[in-house]
Amino acid sequence: MNHETRIIKYNASIKMEAYHFQGIMQKFPNHFHEYYEIGYIENGKRKLTCKEREYMPSE
Predict the structure, then answer these.
(1) Are 46 and 58 in contact (CB under 8 A)?
(2) Which member of 21, 22, 40, 56 has the lowest number of beta carbons within 10 Å of its beta carbon?
């Protein structure tokens, strides 16, 4: 059984959202943002596709 954790925090004074996801194994649909997005992966791998190019973390 896969245990999923999704925590979302919002700070109104700096207008920033922070997300913590753990144990989620799903594909996200193609989309884009009008703002910056920063991701951090503690362990495992994630493939990123941007403008039809695929990026994998270095080994």
Answers:
(1) no
(2) 40
Give the pair of three-digit tokens for residue 6.
């999704």
pTM of the model: 0.51
* Cα–Cα nearest to 22, from 40, 38, 6, 43: 6
Q: How far apart are CA 53 and CA 20, in angstroms?
A: 26
pLDDT tens string, the chain, 59 residues long: the values are: 568 899 999 999 999 999 888 887 777 777 777 888 777 777 777 777 777 888 876 65
Q: Is the separation of the CB atoms in 23 and 36 below 8 Å?
A: no
